[in-house]
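Deliverable D5.2: sample structural annotation.
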Amino acid sequence: MKLLVVGASYRTAPVAALERLAVDPADLPRVLTRLVAQPYVSEAVLVSTCNRVEVYAVVSGFHGGLGDICAVLAESTGCQPAALADHLYVHFDVAAVNHVFRVVTGLDSMVVGEAQILGQLRDAYHRAAEADTVDRLLHELMQQTLRVGKRARSETGIDRAGQSVVTAALGLATELLDSDLAGRPALVVGAGAMGSLGVATLTRLGAGPVTVTNRGADRAARLADSYGGRAAPIADLTETLSTVDIVVAATAAPEAVLTRAVVAPALAGRDPSRGPLVLLDLAVPRDVEPGVADLPGVRVIDIDRMAALVADGPVAADVAAVEQIVAAEVNAFLTWLRGADVAPTVAALRGRADDVVTAELGRLAQRCPDLTDDQRAEVARTVHRVVQRLLHQPTVRVRQLAAEPGGDQYAALLRELFDLEVPQTSPVGTVPEVMAPDVDPQLGGDADPLPTGGE
C-alpha cells in the first residue's frame, strides 16, 4: 500500500476553482465513502478549508489511486477531470508524508505559521474516523501529524511570529481605512472557527462595537456574549452593514451571503465620510458576491488578494527550525513504517517455526510412547529454546535493517527463503526512496509545482 496526496491550494488554484472543489461539511461523509469505495483506495482523509482541498489516501497503486481520487473529486465538483488537472498537485509516499507535516506546521500556509490549520486537520481526521475511512496507516499518519504540529509550535516561535489569516487581513484593512481599528464598528458574519477568530482579533485590536450575525442565532449570541459584543439577526444584515466600517465574512454557506442586493442598500444609508466599507471575505466558497467589489464605497479583500499581498511573518530562524523538525519527523515516520512492514513477516516466520516444533513433538510422542509427561515437557522446552535462540538474532537484525533505506527488501527475502505466506490484512506497506515515475505532467508531478511557504 502507498500514501498519496492529491489536492489544490491557494498557490495552485484561484478562489473560483477552490470553490468548486470545496466539500460541504454535510457532504463530507458521502465523499469519503465514495473515495474508499474505489478499486485502488483503501483509506482516505479529506481536508477542505478556505485555502486548500486535499485528499490523503492509502492506495494499492499510484496511477490507479490517482485516477480514482481525481474521478471522485470531479464527480463531487461536477467537472471533468481535465478541468481540474491544471490546479492539482500530487505527492507520493515520502513526499506525501513531508507535505502533510509541512501543512500541519504552517509552513505551507498563506500566512506562514498560522495555527488554525492544526485544528482543521484534527477535525478532518475525526470526521474520517467517524466515517470509518481510516485504518492503521492513516491513523498513525494523522496522529503523528497532529503531534508534529504541536511540537513545532511548542519548540519554536513560528506560531508567535506568524500571523493568523484574520490578523493579516485586518492589517490590510487598516491600510484601506488609513487608520487603526480602534473604535471602528465591526461586523462578523459567521460564528464558526474563522468567525470566532475574527471576533477575538477585532476585540484585541480595539475595534468596536463588534456585532456577530449567523444563520444560527443562538451560536451568534454565545460568541458575541463571550467577547462583550452583540448579536444581530441575519435577516437584518443590510441594516447592520450600514452601521459598521469593517466586515469579516467567514461562513460555510454554499452561496454568497453579501450580495449586491444586500450591500447596495446599506451603502445608501451609510455616511461616506467614515471611509469605505471594508469587506474581508475569508470564506470558500466566497461569501461576497463578485459584483459587490464594483460598488462605489466598498473595498473587498478576498483570498486571492491575500495570497498576493500577505508577507511571510516568521523570522528565518523559526522557519529553519521547523524545517528541521519536519525532516526529523518524516524520517521517524518512515522508520516506523518500515518496521511495521517487516513485523508481519517476522510473525509469520516465528509461526512457521512453532508449527515445525509442534509437528516434531507430535511425531516424538508417537515414536517414544514410554516417555513420561515430565520428560516430554523437558524435550519440548529444549526444542523451543533452540528454535528461539536460532531465530532471535536474525529477527532482531532484520528489524534493524528494515528501518534503514531500502529495508523493505529484507522482509521480501525472508518471505522468499522460507516460503512464507503473510496475510495482507494491514494497510501498511513499503516506502520507496524515489517517487513513482511517469507521473501525468498535467497533474503536477510528485511535488508541489510552486515554491513552498504561505497559506
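Annotation notes: Strands lie at 2-9, 41-48, 52-59, 89-92, 186-189, 210-213, 230-231, 246-249, 277-281, 298-301. Residues 172 and 429 are 47 Å apart (CA to CA).
The annotation will be released with the project's public dataset once the embargo ends.
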